[in-house]
Amino acid sequence: MQNFWTASGFYTLVKNDHGWLRVTPDYLRFILARPELAPLAESGPREVTLHALLIDDPLRKISPDELVAIEDSDARGNYVYFLKLRKALLDAVTLERFYLQSFRKGIIDLPPVFLEFAAQAIVRGLLDGIDDPYEVRAGEMFFRRQRISIEGGQVLAADAETIQMFAETGGFGSVGRLIAQQGTALASVNMDVMSHENAQLYWLRENRYSYLLDLTYGRAGEQALARLLARWVKHFLGVGVSIEAQPNIEDDAWRWHIGLDAESTRILNDLYEDNDVDEARLKRLVLLFRLRFDDAVDMRADVAGKPVYLGLAITEDNVLKLKPQNLLINLPLKNNG
Question: Which of 126, 159, 193 finishes a domain?
Fold first, then answer.
């Protein structure tokens, strides 16, 4: 088993008997060391002092006067958010409970980046002991935006930040040119399509986010994403589900669907309500899955035994942002009423 995502903070957390990740002082130190909070060369002395005090004791109480004394207003705001985050994490005890509570209360009062940190560490824990590079690459989608290329029926996902980082110098080869033709300038960075021939090389560059994942219907990348989504449900909700790809939805008894991003939610809602969806918009629905519960007794009585359809869609500028929390809060569980 290879180590991977060393920048996730996973090894600062401790698994409890349920397999959930218990928040530790070292995890708070990990967050404090992130660029969002770590002092810069130009940071004022009071900010530097406060940061050092928190690194020494991440649970230390911070007075309002200490916050007000921070010289830079942006840094001051970041520390206000850190203290909110710290309280939420410590109240929740585990990262999973923090993640669920953040979305179930309906009001997200923390910057998205903090929730993405949590998602990365949780997915890292889910993948602990897994040596399938396809699943690990699919796991990147849980906390990083993807830029999608669609050509000749092939759906390829590239890390959007990696694309942006190298957008000015070109040189991705034929696949890169394909994505570039859809409005993204690419640069000289090695981005191969993950295949059975090169997948094991993932472990040599797992923190570079430089593999393209083939999400075309019926291929290994799409199947890996389906498996990981099912494991995500089991981990959080304790119910067994199976998820498999669908080329389309042909179901006269269609009762429930979940968009795994904002765009697919709107498209699926319109399809379900029999509203007009033009061809260009429909093509943006790049992935469809059918989810079935292992035991219908876990479902709401009015939909028990029925499949749940899942969708993923790209925006007009070909970006895909998976929202894995949608799968947790919108499943028709018996206990959700």
Answer: 126
Q: pLDDT higher for 2 or 311?
A: 311
How many angstroms separate the CA atoms of 318 and 315, rounded?
A: 5
Amino acid at 170: G
Query: Could you list the residue range(s) of the whole structural domain that residue 26 is in?
Result: 6-126
The domain boundary residue, chosen from 98, 126, 154: 126
Nearest CA to 214 out of 197, 234, 233, 189 is that of 197
Of the candidates 280, 275, 273, 274, the one whose C-alpha atom is nearest the C-alpha of residue 313 is 280
Contact 311, 139 (CB under 8 A): no
Start-to-end CA distance of the chain, whole Å, equals 41
pTM of the predicted structure, to 2 decimals: 0.90
Q: Amino acid identity, residue 333?
A: L
Pick from 280, 324, 288, 320: nearest CA to 179 = 320
Place of tokens 């998820």: 243
Q: Are 9 and 31 in contact (CB under 8 A)?
A: yes
pLDDT, position 266: 97
Tokens of 184: 């993204």
Residue 197 confidence (pLDDT):
94
Contact yes or no for 287/237 (Cβ under 8 A): no
What would the pLDDT profile of 254-268 be if each residue is shown by its tens digit?
Answer: 999 999 999 999 999
DSSP string, 35-57: TTTSPPTT--HHHHHHHHHHHH-
pLDDT tens digits, one per residue of 307-336 = 999 999 999 999 999 999 999 999 999 976
Q: In the predicted model, is pLDDT for residue 283 greater than 50? A: yes
Q: How many folded domains does the chain comprise?
A: 3
At 251 the pLDDT is 92
